[in-house]
Amino acid sequence: MIKLENVTKRFGDYAALDDVSLEIGKGTAYGLLGSNGAGKSTMLRLIAGIYRPDKGSVTADGKPIFDNAAAKSGIFFINDETVQLSSFTLKTLKEYYRGFYPHFSEEMFTKLNESVRLPEKKRISEFSKGMKRQAAVIVGLSCCTDYLLIDEAFDGLDPTMRIIVKRMLVDAMLDRKMTVVISSHNLKEINEICDRAALIHNGKIVFSREIDSLKSDIRKVQASFPEEHTKDDFRFDGLLHFERVGSVYQFVIKGDEEEIRQKLAPYSPGFADIVPLTLEEIFIYEMEGKGYDANGIDGLGGAGE
Amino acid sequence: MTQTASTVLAAPGNKTASPAVLNGLFTFRRHIPHAVIVFLMSLLTVPMFVLYMASHSTSPELDEELSGVAVLCALCWGAAMLAAGTVIGSAFRSSFSKQYLDMEHSLPMSASGRFFSDLIGGTAAGVLPVAAADIISLLLLLVLSGNILVSQHAVMIMKVIAAKDVIMLQMLALLLLCAVCCGKAGVSRFVFAIMLMLPFGALALFEFLRSDPFFLIGVDPTDSSACLLGAFSPLVGVYNIGEMVSGYMAGNDTDFGYARWMVYSLCVTAAAVGISYLLYRGRTAEKTGSAFAYKGLYYIMMTAVCFIVMFMLIQLPNALMIGIDSVSMTVLAIISTAAAYVIIELIVFRSFSELYKTLIRYAVTAAGCFILITVIDKTGFFGVERYVPAASEVGYITLENFGGYYNDDCIEELELHDPENIARVIAGHSVQVDLDEQMKEKLDLADIYSSVVYTGFFPESSEYVTENYVRINYHLRSGRTVTRRYRLAYEALTEMKDICLTEEYKTQLADSIADAFSGITTGRRSIRILDKFRIQSADHYGLPDDAYPKLAQSLRADIDAMTAEDYFTPSEPEFGYIEFGYEYRSSGRIIIRGCYRNTIAYLESIGVDACDSFDARDYGYLALASPGKNAYHGTAQALRFDENGKLIGFTHGVSLADADGELRAAAKRVLSSAYTEYEVNDGYILTCNNTIAYIPPERAADAELLIKEGEAQQRLTDEKLGNYKDGDPFEEAWKELDGQ
To answer: Which residues contact A288 (CB under 8 A, 6 or more apart)?
Structure first.
């Protein structure tokens, strides 16, 4: 289990993570969500043992990670860049990492590469962005570590490759109970792969929950009422979003279907269509609730009264 | 997952290696192209150097043609150094690039393992090819031309090869330090360049401080600067080696302290690696990408830059012959160093936004430097300035240039073991220290600056002295060496002068003359006879084969017979000087005193007569002054001080170029009667061609005539040039002189 306890990481005056605590259980697929600069990459680098926390502790299976080779040998970090791989060929990259990770699996490497067919002897600098990403994932998975950290996991991959890479990750999780921590802006993929997610904003954890429970706990409602209302009329807890288009009212409200119906009952809705949110919608509405909305960007809310 | 980095990991493919070893191997492998360049360039360097050395000794007439080989050799070595130098920045690339930081710092390795494996892997790519090339070159040379390596040059060749390798190690260590302290590759290279210049900055500081002759009198940091500064900068090391080689090839055994430099350099290299390791351990990953991971290095660098700028500035008025007062100089120094400071900060941090912080930093740096220098000055470097070893501590003493005070230039280094002579040196040193302290208290800073800036000269003690610096090296029984350097005051010299009369001195003087003669084994032997001011000369070639041994023999007899009177109050002026050597080259100069009867007789017997026509016009420019407590002598001017030691003016020299008959006659009489060595209680002091001579009081009328004429000429010059438009600062002094 990876555990962050009261971790603070500052860059000068700026707190990238501020007193954050988080637990990532073994065998979990954990998604890190957050706006740009929220602290996701910083958190991954803390878990990878690259950064030393200013306060608090970061441990893997109870062992501190920073400057601890034993703890790090169970963690593989794929960052959001691939420039550093340029001087390698896939073969030399494999040789390089094979020496560092005691459980590196040649067999898995071969098997994974069969599915993407990357040239082993060509310099990685000559690869496309997506191919470089695939190379990093293949090597990362072949290291057979307990924890795989991927920053911007699907950046640069075409739709087919996304499916292949997702399948690789899922297989590894199922086969070896590997823990994957993914930071991505592509919430659809997180939604598909991860069973838990944490939303980070301004260096703080907004929530950290199972995605299913998250989705079941927040709903989008389309309703109509016999009388006209403004946002101020709906004074109940959990209202994340309000929008009115003609006589149709749209809400995003925390709670299960029954709770939401009870909250709206006093306003005698003509009809109320309650549907679950996608993870992307949850992200947008949660962030809106934190004052990080998409005002000015077409089609992304902000039109409500 | 319980293994640690030090655990030997069993990797598939039947390979067993610890992560650190593996990382080191990969680092080395990554730099194989660099290593190939280093190897090839090094392989060319050594043979070219050997070829140059060997050709120089066998065919010196080809020197000019061979200079191309020397340049090529230097270029090859430079290319090897450059290729090796880039390895360190590349091996520690995670210091500069976040991508490499992510990749390398997330690997299961401790910081120590990563540091040493990167260091060893990178350094190996730079050093192993050099070592291999050295060995191969030497083996090839041994097989193909063995006589070169067993020739007289063998030691020098080996010294240079070892030196170049040590310089490379030094460079790699400093590059490592820069890589660890900086977060950007460009900044790291910039800092390294500044670091190369740091010793020059230190020299600039020493020079600046030495322009104040009362700052740490006698303690001369440049005494050990060649080897000490060379140990801190590969560039100074290269310069020192270059000097050593060119000196060797010119026939001089120029030793700048090679062995000490090697030891210091290796110590500095080891220290740089050790410090780098500690800093690396403490360095936080987030510093990658920022200009400096450690600001300390930056501030040291900036301080050095300030001093370099200040040094250049101080040289400027002298170079342009501009007089500048101390206040203007200080203001100029502050403005220029502040400008340099701000410009570098802007280059490094690329922002104007915190200019006020930069200025505060500059102010703190400048104030810090000022306080440090003041503390050092006021405490005499915490007692070092006044320290004179006790006789019981001293094993023996070497005195450098002491013979120069008595025109015995041949004896460059005098080794004193006689306890009486040791006591004389200690007594003289103690007197000098006391006198210097009294003088230091008398004079204020304005005097120091004005005298330095206007004249480039400043007196150091209370009596007239020559410009000769004597260096006293106390070799203590503890093994330590204490070195001091003084322009000795008359009083100090008085304590030490009897050294000249001792067996120890006379033997070494005669030996050094005999050695100098015996060193001339080739070419047509010659003697040039010079007058006592070394202006007129006559050459004599085709001397008998036994001329030098006979001269040495007669000189030894004359030196043995010398009395105190002969040395200090001679009754006959000097015969002159002889320069001896072969062809057109001079190998040394010896004074022929009036009392050297055997030598003069021998010289006359082989047709070498004294030059004593003294045509005043040949002597161009004379400076005369009355001796006494307030007269001091520099180049062609004598500074005049009042009773309190305050500068009141100069005794200006007289130009004899257009002198009339009366003046010429007076000058001739003065020159003829001059003694270049004499103890003076009365009479006049004459400075001519940088030689200080004594004019006996019988020539007072002539001397006064020359002094008045000198002042008149100076006033005329001042009027023509429009000097002192705002009033002559020495007007009162002139009036006083006129009244005398």
So the answer is: A240, A241, A294, A301
According to CATH, where is 3.40.50.300 located in chain A?
A: 2-212
Closest CA to B491 of B458, B462, B460: B462
For A160, counting Cβ atoms within 10 Å of its Cβ (0-12 exposed, 13-18 middle, 19+ buried), the class is exposed
Q: Where in chain A is the domain with CATH 3.30.70?
A: 217-289
CA distance B148 to B48: 12
Q: What is the pLDDT of residues B671-696, one digit of tens each?
A: 888 877 666 566 777 877 767 777 88
Q: How far apart are CA B312 and CA B677, in angstroms?
A: 38
Residue of B1, B4, B110 lying closest to A146 (CB–CB): B1
- Residue with tokens 């070195």, as numbered in its chain: B483
Query: Which of A50, A73, A98 is closest, CB to CB, to B105?
Result: A50
ipTM value of the model? 0.83
Does B40 contact A at CB distance below 8 Å?
no
A217-289 is classed CATH 3.10.450? no
**B141 contacts B149 by C-beta, under 8 angstroms:** yes
Q: Which two tokens stand for residue B263?
A: 């030891």
Among A21-25, A27-31, B445-449, which is the least confidently predicted range?
Answer: B445-449
Q: What's the CA angle centered on A60, arms A56 and A65, to 5 degrees?
A: 65
Residue of A9, A14, A73 to mutate for B, most B C-beta atoms under 10 A: A73
What CATH number is given for A2-212 in this structure?
3.40.50.300
Contacts of B621 (CB under 8 A, 6+ apart): B636, B653, B654, B655, B656, B688
* DSSP E strand stretches across B200-269: none
Q: Exposure of B269 by Cβ count < 10 A (0-12 exposed, 13-18 middle, 19+ buried)?
A: buried
Distance CA B529, CA B591 (A): 10
Cβ atoms within 10 Å of A5's Cβ, excluding its own: 15
B1/A69 CB distance under 8 A: no
Domain locations along chain B: 1-151, 391-501, 503-605, 616-739
Structure tokens at A260: 């939401």
Phi, psi for residue B538 in degrees, rounded to 5: -145, 135
Q: How many CA atoms lie within 13 A of B101 on its CB side?
A: 19
Question: CB of B90 within 8 A of CB of B30?
Answer: yes
Kindly calculate the radius of gyration of chain B based on its CA atoms and give it in whole angstroms: 31
Phi-psi region of A27 (alpha: psi -120 to 50; beta: other; left: phi over 0): left
Q: How many residues does chain B have?
A: 740
* Cα A16 from Cα A172, distance rounded (Å): 31
pLDDT, tens digit (0-9, with 9 covering 90-100), for B137-157: 888 877 776 565 556 677 888
